[in-house]
Design goal:
The chain is built from twelve helices and ten strands. α3 runs parallel beside α4 and α10 runs antiparallel to α11. A five-stranded parallel beta sheet has the order 2-1-3-4-5, with helices on both faces. Strands 6-7-8-10-9 form a five-stranded mixed beta sheet. With about 350 residues, it is an alpha/beta fold. The protein binds adenosine-5'-triphosphate and magnesium ion. Adenosine-5'-triphosphate (ATP) binds next to α10 and α11.
Length: about 350
């Protein structure tokens, strides 16, 4: 039996939701405030929580955060019900850990469809799926690493190896033909110099292929800003970028992970969203570093992603590997929000003393 917990302070709102969901084979429970919601969630382990935002004492965001920080409840699907159809509350909801949103007044058909999708998998299936996903991810990470090694080895061998061999042969030729007539010398030295220069260009290209040069040169915040500006110029999509100050000491892997999230999210915006505006926010709150990319485009249905699509899955994998969180929320009205969050490691004691 699927248990759904309805949390709303207004009796009439609870009644409306109850009547919309009755006749389906759900066991429906209600709570009239945040405290009761937490108590019932812990006792009943609902398969879905429908959570009103505007409640006195403890609002829906806070209830959501507390549920997410309770280990036995951390996986419970939460749909936030909000009359506030604005970007700020959407972002707050995602940050608090909500899985989905419904705007009040709730539409009966939409509510029922959403609830069915979310509760279709029972908890056991979800767990098994997560375990299988982790296994696939680990496999894929190893395969990707192998492929990358083979690519680098091929380039080292076919390109650099051959260029160096030919340079050595030229030097040997020159040695063997000593003394070279004075008139030929500048030209032959020039040819050697040209070959050495070509090799240095190849080395630089190979190194750049492994790490984005912008990120290396500018640091995360400025690299994101530069990438957004270039994206906007190239696509004519307006990008608004806001960022907190980010310390230069953040781990390289964190910077690279968020930079890749930006690249894929913006590529998806051009490929799929039909948007004309994108908002990119980079924030640091305490030790939590977050990047959100939101567009005002057509949105998409997460259930309908094709098996061959790898972009978003790849990001999900990157974030799991980096110990972070990756979330997507999408609707035809609000467009798509992609969010990646990573926590910075504790400062080393020396760094604190020096500060
Ligand atoms: N910002 C967006 N707006 C609308 N639809 C999107 C957006 N981002 C992703 N999608 C949808 O989600 C699907 C999956 O995206 P994903 O990045 O995983 O794959 P892809 O872009 O199709 O291919 P690739 O593997 O090259 O990234 C897309 O095919 C598209 O339908
Ligand atoms: Mg993509």
């Amino acid at each position: 039996m699927t248990t759904i917990l309805i949390v709303d302070d207004e009796p009439s709102a609870r009644e409306t939701l109850l009547s919309m969901l009755e006749h389906e084979s759900y066991s429906l429970e209600t709570a009239k405030n945040g405290a009761e919601a937490l108590e019932k969630a812990e006792r009943l382990h609902p398969d879905l929580i429908l959570l009103d935002v505007m409640m006195p004492h403890m609002d829906g965001f806070e209830v959501c955060r507390r549920i997410r920080s309770t280990p036995q409840l951390a996986e419970a699907p939460i749909v936030i019900l909000t009359a506030l159809d604005d970007r700020a509350s959407l972002l707050r909801g995602i940050e608090a850990g909500a899985d989905d949103f419904l705007t009040k007044p709730v539409d009966r058909a939409e509510l029922r469809a959403r609830v069915r999708t979310i509760t279709r998998l029972n908890r056991y299936n979800t767990l098994m799926e997560q375990r299988e996903n982790l296994r696939l991810m680990a496999d894929r990470a190893v395969t990707a690493q192998e492929q990358e090694r083979r690519r680098i080895s091929r380039e080292l061998h076919d390109d650099l190896g051959q260029a160096l061999t030919s340079l050595m042969l030229e030097i040997r030729n020159l040695q063997e033909s000593l003394p070279v007539p004075q008139a030929e010398l500048p030209e032959r030295l020039q040819a050697l110099h040209r070959q050495a220069h070509e090799i240095s260009v190849k080395v630089r290209e190979l190194a750049q292929g492994m790490r984005p040069p912008l990120l290396e040169a500018l640091g995360l915040k400025d690299a994101i800003q530069a990438y957004c500006a270039e994206f906007s110029r190239r696509t004519n999509i307006q990008v608004s970028f806001e960022a907190d100050e980010i310390p230069a000491s953040i781990p390289d892997t964190h910077a690279l992970t968020l930079y890749r999230v930006l690249q894929e999210a913006l590529t998806n915006v051009v490929k799929h969203a039909k948007a004309d505006c994108v908002w990119v926010d980079l924030t640091l709150e305490g030790r939590i570093l977050s990047l959100t990319v939101q567009d005002n485009g057509c949105g998409f249905d997460k259930e309908k992603i094709q098996p061959g699509s790898l972009g978003l899955r790849g990001l999900q994998e990157r974030l799991v590997i980096a110990g972070g969180v990756f979330k997507i929320s999408s609707s035809p009205v609000r467009g798509t929000v992609v969010m990646a969050q990573l926590s910075l490691p504790e400062e080393a004691p020396e760094a604190r003393e020096a500060a």
